[in-house]
Amino acid sequence: MKVRTRFAPSPTGYVHIGNIRAALFPYLLAKQNAGKFILRIEDTDQNRFVADAEAVLIDTLKWLGLEWDEGPDIGGPYAPYRQTERRDHYIKWAEKLIKKGLAYADPYTPEEVDAFRKESEKSKKPFLYRNYRPENPPKWQIGLPLRFKQTKIERKYWHDAIMGDLEAGAETLDDFILIKADGLPTYNFAHIVDDAEMKCTHVTRGIEYLSSMANYLALYDALELKPPIFVHMPHIMAPSGNKKLGKRDGAKSVQEYRAEGYLPEAMLNFLVMLGWNDGTTTDIFSLADMTAKFDLTRVQRAGARFDEKRLLWLNGQWIRRLDLAKLFSYVRDFWGPTAKSTSESRKMEVLEAVQERLKTLADLPALTEYFFAPPQIDLAMITEHKSLKNLTRPQLITMLEVSILKLETLARVSGTSDSPLLPMSGHWNTESLQAALNDLLADTARKPAELFSLLRIAVSFAPFSPELPRTFAVLGPDETISRLKKVMAALAETPNA
RNA sequence: GGUCCCAUCGUCUAGCGGUUAGGACAUCAGGUUCUCAUCCUGAAAACCCGGGUUCGAUUCCCGGUGGGAUCACCA
Question: Which amino acids of A are annotated catalytic?
Answer without folding.
Answer: 247
